[in-house]
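re: ur question from yesterday

yeah so i grabbed the chain u mentioned. its 324 aa long if i counted rite. heres the sequnce exactly as i have it in my notes:
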Amino acid sequence: MSWWCRAVRRTVSRTTAPEGPDGDAVELRDIEIFLTLAEELHFGRTAARLHLSQARVSQIVAQHERQIGGRLFDRSNRRDVRLTPLGTSLRDDLEPVYGDLRESLRRAQRAARGVDAQLRVGLMPFNVPALHGYWETFSKRHPRYELRVRYASFTDPFGSLRRGEIDVLVTWLPVEEVDLTVGPTLFVDSRVLAVAATHELASRPSAPVEALADFAHVKLSNLPETWENGYLPFRTPGGKTIERVESVANADELLQLVSTGEIIHPFPAHVTQYWSMPHIRWLPVPDLNPLSYVLVWRTDAENEPVRAFARTVQDLAPVTDGRV
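ran it thru and got these structure tokens back, copy pasting raw so excuse formatting
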């Protein structure tokens, strides 16, 4: 299989196809199909993710197996597939080579545009427009750094950092992860409670923290305990348990459960500037600790663009209401 890795290293674009030992071409897209199927272990999901037909995925896999001379996947299950030992070995060999090649291509593309580096920022708060001052100042100061800002998933808060999918995360304190560095604060925000318009709390002018223990909340798995407790305490000041009972995968599902009265949920107050929902009421929670949103990055991946962005945030004074 070593010729595959050498072939991928020699591939400099999707239109360049190095030759395998039997004369068949190995294209970068073909490697992507194999690695995606190795991750999904399902032909339908792989085809949908890559915007291909299942027949095309099957064709490429069969071509791979013909070139190598052995089966890469066990197809005994009609719906799902499994990697064979040969397929597992090939995946392990190809993943780092393919990743390095894609990064080389991205660097070349950035250089062609006059860009030295890219900074990818994952954002957990919802006030993207209010934070434009940070993005604009950074871009003016560092025009050769390309800034990309995307929402980050709250179901895997630090995974995207650790996998190298983003360079910096904007999230709330406390962050007590030994491999992560906590940088400067962007803003501090007070708290509101989202309840259904028909909920028994909806007519109140505000809600105390103690009232949170009387109703159900969302349950998210695999969150760092101190980080989750910083957003929604596990207990009220009076010692009552705040129960997490309903699982959600995204903000849309969460708001749907709030709107039907199945749960209540605290938010940073800035969401009220961006979400106008007649079926949801927003109640101030004066005695719930404000959230401080900070920059966080992987300590061993710190580089000059990350430091430059941290300096920019440090130079702009944080505020207390979610606006910049």
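noticed a couple things. The CA atoms of residues 184 and 294 lie 6 Å apart. also Residues 9-25 have pLDDT under 50 and may be disordered.
anyway ttyl
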